[in-house]
Structure formats: structure tokens, C-alpha cells
Amino acid sequence: MSEATAKRHMGLKASRAVTNTAIHILLIVISIIWLIPFVCIVLQSFRVENSGQVGYVLPKVWGTDNYSNLFQTDFPRWYTNTFVAALITAVLQTVIVLCMSYTLSRFRFKMRQPLMRFMLILGMFPGMLTMIILYRVLKDLGMTQANATPGLILVYIASSGMGYYVSKGFFDTIPTSLDEAARIDGATRAQILYKIILPLSKPIVIYTILTAFMGPWGDYVFARYIAFGASAGKNVAVGLYDWLSKDQISNNYTMFCAGGVLVALPVTVLFMFLQKYYVEGVTGGAVKG
Amino acid sequence: MASVKLTDVKKIYDNKVTAVHDFNLEIKDKEFVVFVGPSGCGKSTTLRMIAGLEDISGGTLEIDGEVVNDLQPKDRDIAMVFQNYALYPHMTVYDNIAFSLRLKKVPEDEVYERVTNAAQILGITEYLTRKPRALSGGQRQRVAIGRAMVRNAKVFLMDEPLSNLDAKLRNQMRAEIILLRQKLDTTFIYVTHDQTEAMTLGDRIVIMKDGFIEQVGTPQEVFDTPVNLFVAGFIGSPQMNFLKAKLVQEGSGYTVEILGARIPLNEDQNAVLAKKKVKSMEIILGVRPEHTTVLFDKTENAIECAIDVNEMMGSELHLHLSSANDDKIIVRLPTVDLTKEQRNSLAYGGKMYITFPAKVMHLFDPETERSLIDG
Amino acid sequence: MAQLSDLEYLKLSKGKKFGYRLGHFFTGIPKGIGRFFLKIWEGLKKCGAAVGREAADIVNTFVHGDWKTKLSYLVMGFGCLARGQILRGILFLLFEVVFIGYMILSGGYWLSMLPSLGKTGPSKEYNELLDVYVTKYNDNSFQILLYGVLTIFFIIAFIYTWRLNIRQNKIAEKILASGKKLKSGKEDLRSIVDDQFHKTLLALPMTGIIVFTLLPILFMVLVAFTNYDGTHNGYTNSLFTWVGLDNFNTMLSWSGGAGGTQSYAATFGEVLLWTLIWAFFATFTNYFLGMFVAMAINKKGIRFKKGWRTILVLTIAIPQFISLLYVSKMFAKNGIINGFLMDMGWITQAIDFFGDASRPWLARITVIVINIWIGIPYLMLITTGILMNIPADLYESAKIDGASGWKQYTKITLPYMLFVTGPYLLTSFTGNMNNFNVIYLLTGGAPTNAAASSASGSVGYTDLLITWLFKITTGAESQYYMASVIGILVFVVVALVSLIVYNVMPSTRNEEDFR
Q1: Contact A124/C430, CB-based, under 8 Å?
Q2: Model confidence pTM above 0.90
């Protein structure tokens, strides 16, 4: 090997090492940027000396006062509201979404294409618009303000059939010859669904449950409409949002941080455990549009 | 154990494309019928109509004398093996095979009996507790066959069951299907695009193209007396050679003229042509590679050809030739009797002479592409 | 523009190729629009023909049918009952009875009130016993509109069922004539889990969609043609009524508002423009940076791949209202960011990121940057999966052909990604147009646009159409009719964008390809 070629070979290795180091540094910087807000919120939730907003991060006096104070407020009530709504929504929405997507993936009926086009067009209207009328109807039914939770659940699940895309995309990848084999083996359509398709769709079922749970857990808009004005009917999003309003922020800022930590903790843990399924669902959904 | 009868069965898709035109066929009890043809010829669609996986657009389908057009697949008492096996990935081999029996609420001890019995016949007993993904292609295929076997169905449908296997395994499984057929002794309908499979397996072969049946017959019949150019070219490997030639009527007899060679037809052929009142005409002459006589020296009625390619197959040579008419011809030449000089002369640029007797010649009308003699 | 053959096109230089394509794109627009309307026209023609066929069939069935069929025209389900299909017959009959009962008891009233939306509003009446004035509530415009629409739905459903009932008779007659048996009630019940299973599965989801989405949206579309707002709520204060296209005229009028403010149309235009700019940058900054991060993590020789991903994914797990609200407070005047910058001595005066009306673009750019923080993790996840699907031999052969890393990216990675994620980009774009959370939780629309039309509520420089809509409905005046108009316009914009992108996209893939 001549000296020149040797240099060229070394160059390849060296330049790769340089780029990789650069990327590692970049990733560290990115990670810091992404983590800062979360670190800050946790730190500030333990700050005792000042309950308002300050320009520094590290508390001067540490303590769990903010957490214990939460229980003097309506926060436990909001937390229960949110949890109940999220849990029930997760179950019912999953059932509805799976029904819808299985049907659209597996049956070839006359109204299939028009139905999908209809839902596509309907989805182009801002969903918030419907809240104006739904609020008034639910109010007549006594499902708003302090009793907002049942009304909210109804709103969350009612139109969930329109979110069929991701799971339909998944069902489409299960070969239809399995259905056909099962039909010849003597299974009815219903049996095919719960004996063949569902056992094969574990990732997408978990993904659907997870997203169906996380929707209500972090929802602000719908809860804001339905719980309008009544503290007992708020969910955590509306409750914590109001703590940051101009007249409350100076007293409740650190309590907001503590509440935020308590709200984020369970979903984060859940999410970390089910990350694999979430990734699968999100990727599949994007590819199949 | 049933007959199947298709009368004017049609498949027309929503977009007005006709996949199968009036399909008429009567399959006898315990017969093994093979549908063969190039992809898109409608063979699979026909099979799927028999299975009940596709709606029948017209005509009637009878199994054992009962019209089953509007019956669900499960009510037709058929079993089917799919091309990609279609095994349920989340079930063990045992559960896969037992699935249909359990749906029928067969008692569990009988399920056990039938599943293990089928597994024994197929030699997959040791895999019963495995999931399909832990099996090789051939083993999966056996499970798929086992799943169909335990149902004791009237009709056994197979949709290209071997096409996902490699060549060696395919030959082996082909032999096993023949064995299986002897054991099961039921009606088989088998779909394939591979003419070798069709020839080796079928009692009768149905050759299809573009949704039409081209010819129905035993393997020997379709090989010996193809009714048209398509069947002649489709059955047999290497493919039949097609040459431009002239049919000349001379008195009571006929002669084929090709590149100076004049080959008189035999009595039977003359009789058929005379009966059909065929006049002198341009024809396409079909001769199978194995029926061609190869000569190293020019004789009377021999056609001179140039050698393009020489393929060594071991026991024989496949020679690709072109005639003065620029027809491409393939001939098979056993290597046993060849001298060293002869072998050396069979290279690119060399010359060869071929001839053939009247009885191996197939005569086709270039206009209608139909055989002048057969069919 | 001249049409070139494929081979002629290949001969063009790079610039000319681009010009050719660009030219064809623009000359194609009128053609595309023409095609669109032609399609609508053809659809209408088809519809007309179908209605004609149906009518002819109804008449034919009556003329040729037996007496059971004929009687079914009046008494729904009679034919089924008479032919022994008890279950079907009872269902048909029940539906007819309920329908007629409803129409007599209330449907008729709602329909008759629909054109006026109520005649007498609430009135004060003197109560002699108590010696006070009490309010007496009369007509309710809201209910009239709502139940009016419902009644129309019900009538359509009835006509459809009536038609179904007639078709049933025709089919039954045909089956009986051919000597076969009709389906029994038991078989009907069995079919709902088998060959009619799709109808069973769709029943619940579709009911939800129709009642909670379709009906409300139709209602709100109608509201755009009324004066329904906080002071005309239709019941307790004052009735509302039809106003024709007045609201649209207001929205699109160029005459200035009171107190020297902009016209409504100018305000709308400004918000719409920002909405589009926002959607564009929010979509593409995330897309490319997310892809970049995914590629960085995927690169050979990078360690802790899973760790980096998990850190980013954390942002998805934490509810947006927490992270966004917190980040918005970090950027506040007395927030951590300003505190940090001042501690470091880089600035002397706190920057008002979201409150400075004199620098609207500061707020806008900050919002876009923060959105990158929100969006990269999603895109990183999505693109990671797809990047790994690109066949490695493509890169290997490109390397052997001498392509640099950048060339490999632009010639292999990017085309592949754009092809695969085309539909996703479209939904992401329209999703960002309606991205309520990010804007509302971060800025609440601030800084306020003082020049905005006085009638438009308080619009801010970072307000999207959707947050504006929210503000209008929750503000003091609650101009529901204006919210409807904005909602309709959002629909029009989203539909237009989708239509254009859908037609430009390289391939609208056939869903059957995946089967």
C-alpha cells in the first residue's frame, strides 16, 4: 500500500469518527433541550418560598407543601373526573373504532366507498363547531357544569368512529386469505373477528386503547365548553389552566407544577411501558395515510 | 365424495370485466381435475366460485346434484388449501387443524383423534405444538393440507398449493399429493399455472385462457391432440416448435411443404382433411422437440438449420436452431450415441438438418389458430 | 403548452424540465377545476337517473305485484307478514306507526315553525297574585331549528324504509315464484352476525357520527344564515331568525369597522394568511428536522439509540396542556428564559415574547420554534420506521455509483419519504391549520391585534381561524352565527387544499395494493 492510499483509508475512518462525535454532541444538546421543561416543572413543584412565577429554577426552600395543598382544592375532584372519563372513553372508543375499521377493511359492500368519502368530508369541518349545539343539548339533559363528566364521555366517544384510519390500515395488512380459510372452516363473520383478527391485532388494540385514554386525559377544549364555569365539573386541564389565569397565577403557579407532575406521571409510566405498540401504530398510520 | 357440475358459470366484476365466460364442466365423483393456464386466465376465480369465496354472476353450480350458488362456503362442505397456506399465525399447528372441528362443536376427544390421525399421515406429529412461523415452507403446506383433510369434505380444492415452494420441494410435495389423493379417495379440484403439475396430477386437465376453456381432456389427450395453437404451446416442455409451412392438396392426399421438404400425410390425417374439405393453404406446422429427428448430413426432406445455442442438460442436448424462414426451433438430442466429432460440430455457427414423420405433425390454421385435424 | 412525448421530455435540460413541469401544473389548474365541476355534473346526472329508475321500479312493482304487495304500499310490512316473515313485518309496521305518531304529535309543529324559527318571543306578564312581572317563555328558536332538522332526517329515513319495504315485496315475490323459500326470522337473526355482520358493526359507530357530528354540523351550517348569538339565544332573551347571506356579507365586506378599525374582510384575510403560513412552517419544519433527528439516531456507530428515542418520546407522553402551558410560562416576561438571559447579561430588559403587539412576528416565530419542540418526537418516530424500510442495497449501489451523502439524501431518501408520507403530510397540514392546542395554550392568540375589526371579538396576531372561532363562541357576545361562518370557511379552505394536493401527489395509491 502506498502512502497516499493509506492516507485515504485513514481519512475515511477519521472523518466518520468526527461526524459521529458531532452527532453525539448534537444528540446530547437536543436531549437537554427536550428535558429542561420537565426538569424545571418538577423542581418548581417543590418550591415553597414563593408560590408565584420567578426567574430562577432551583428552589431556595424545598418542600412538599404544594402537593399537600393540592388536596385542599378541587384538584382531587378534577383528577377523578378526568380519570373516569378517560377510562370509560378508552374502553368504548376502542370498541367503536375496531368495529368501524374492521368493517371498512374486510367487507366490500355497496356503501363502503361513499361512507368513507362522507367521513372524510365531515372531518374537514372543525369539530369544535359542534360544541355550540352539543353544549346546549347536553345542558337540557343536565349533563353539563357540575355533571360534566357523563356529558364529556358522550362527546368523546360519539364520533370516535371517524378515527378508523390507523387500525384499518393495520387490518389491511392481515392477509384476507386468513378470513377466507376461516370462512371455509365454518366460521361466521363474527367468529372471524374475535377468533382470528383480534388475536392478531394486539399492537393496534393496545395503540387504540392508549390513544383513546390519552385524548380525554389531556383534553382542554371540550371539557372547557361542557364544564363551563362549574369547578366541580372541570377536568385537570381546565382546572390547571385556570390556575394560570392572570389573577390566580401569583398564588397557584407552583401548585400548577405539582398538579402537572401528578397528571403527567401515570400516563408517562403507562406510555413508557407501551411505547413499542404506540410506535407501531403511529408509524403504520402515517404510511397508510 | 361428490360430483361437481358447473353450467354456464360466469364471473363478471363490478367494473364490467368478465373474468370467466360460460364455464361448463362436469366433474365426476373421486375425480382429480386440474385447472391450468397462465395467470389471469380465470382458473383461480372459478375455483373460488366453487368454494363460495366469490359470488357467481351467472349460471349454476351443483355439488352432488344440489344447487349451491347462494350457500355460504361453510355450508358447501368443501375443503380448501391456499397458495400462501393461510395458517392462523397465533394458533399452534394442532389448533390450526382442529379449528374447523371445534367450530362444528365436535367432541374434544374426537378432535384429538382426527387431528393426530391426519398429522400422522402427513408426518407432522412432532410439530403439533409449534406455531406456524416456526415451520418450513413444506411443513406449513402439510399443515394446510391437514387442516383441509380433517374436515372429511365432499370436495377438496387446492389453489396453487405448491407455487410458494422451491423446485426440489415442489417435486417432492407433488408426489405426496398423489399419495394423499389415493388415501383420501375424494373429489379434487386443483389449480396451477405449471403444466408439469397439471400433467402429473390430473385425471383430466382443463386448460384455460382469458376466461375461456380451451380444451378439456386427459393428460395424454391434450398432449397428443391439442385443439389449438395455445394448448399446443402451453402443454409440453420445451415448448412445441411452430414453423411456417404450406399444405398442398394433391389428388386424394395432402402434402406439407416446408423449405423444399415435402412430407406426405398419413391415411388418417388425409381422411380427416378430406372430410373437412380442406383446400391447399398456408399453415402453421407444430412439431414437438422430442419428435424431431436430428441429422448431421443432408438427406431428402430434411430442413437445414443454423445452430444458435447449445444447452447441455446431461443426458441430452437442447439445441436452439433457426431455419431459413427464421423460424426458431428447439430440438432434443440424446448424448449417448454422439461421437466426439459430432459433439464438437454442435456449436454456434454450425449446421444441422431436421426432419419429422407425418404422424407427429400438428397442423394449425393461421387465421383461426385451430387445429386442422384434431378437435 | 405543447405536449412532449416521454422521450422528447428526457432530452430537455434540467431547467427546461422544471419549466415544462411548472407550466403544465399551472395550465392544468383550469383543466382540473373543469374536471371537478364536470364530475359534479356527472354525479348529478347519475343521481337524477337513479331517482328516475327508482320511481319507475316503484310504479312497476305496484302494477305487476300481487295484492299483498299492493297493500304494502299503504301498510308497511304487510307483505312480509302475509308471507310469513313475521319479524321483518313487525319491524316495518312498528316503524310506520312510530313515524305517523311522531309526525302528528310534534313533527308537524316543528316543520311548520321552521321557516320562521318561532313567532312569539318571551314576554313579561303581570302576575296579580304575587304582584310581580314574570317572564313567560314562548317559542324556542333553538329547538325549532334542531327538531326541524331532525324531523327532516326522520322523513328521509321513512322514505328510505318505505322504499325498502317495497323492494322486499318485489324480491319476495321473485323468490317465491322460483319455488324457493323465504328467509325465516331465525335466519334473519343469524345473518346479523354473519353475512350482514357489517351492518351490525356499523350501527353503533354510525349512529354516533350521525347524531353527534353530522346533525350538529348541519345545524351549525344553518346557524350561519341566522342571527343566533348571546343576545338572541332563541328562548330566554329573544328569538333568532333567518337573515339570509347577511353574515357572509359582513365577513367578506371591505368597509372598515367602527372606531377606525379594519374591515371584517381584512381581519379575516390576515388570520387566514397567518393560518396558512403557520400550517406550512409547522408541517415542514417538523418534517425535515424530525427526519434529520431520526437519521442522526439511526446512523451507524451512534450509541444509546433507544435512550435518545425514549427521551424524545417523553414529550409525547406528557399531556400537551401541561407541557405547553408550562413552556408558555417559561417564555413569560418574568419567566425562566428571560431570567436566564438577564442573569447571563445578554439582555438588560425582559423580552415580551407573546405580549408585544408592535412585534407580532416575534410571537409568531417563537410559536413556530416551540412547535418544533412539540413536533420533532412524532416525526422522529414516524420517519424512523420508514427510513429503516428503505432497501439498503439502494444506498450501496448509490455509493458505488459515486453519490455523496447529500446526493444520497436528495436522490434516494427524500423521494422515498415523500412518496410514502405524502398522504400523511396532507393530513398533517390540515391538522396544523386546526391546531388549537399549540396556539391557544401557548399564547391564547396574543399579542392582541388592536387594528382588528371591532366586531370580530379580540383577535390576536397568533390566532388561527380555529382559535378565533373558539374565542367568538366563548366571548361575552357569543356570536354563534359568525363562528358558523368561520367554520364553513375553514371547511372550504381545508377542502380546497386537500383537493389540490391530492391531485398533485405523485400517486394516489390504491388501497387494494396492500392486500
Answers
A1: yes
A2: no
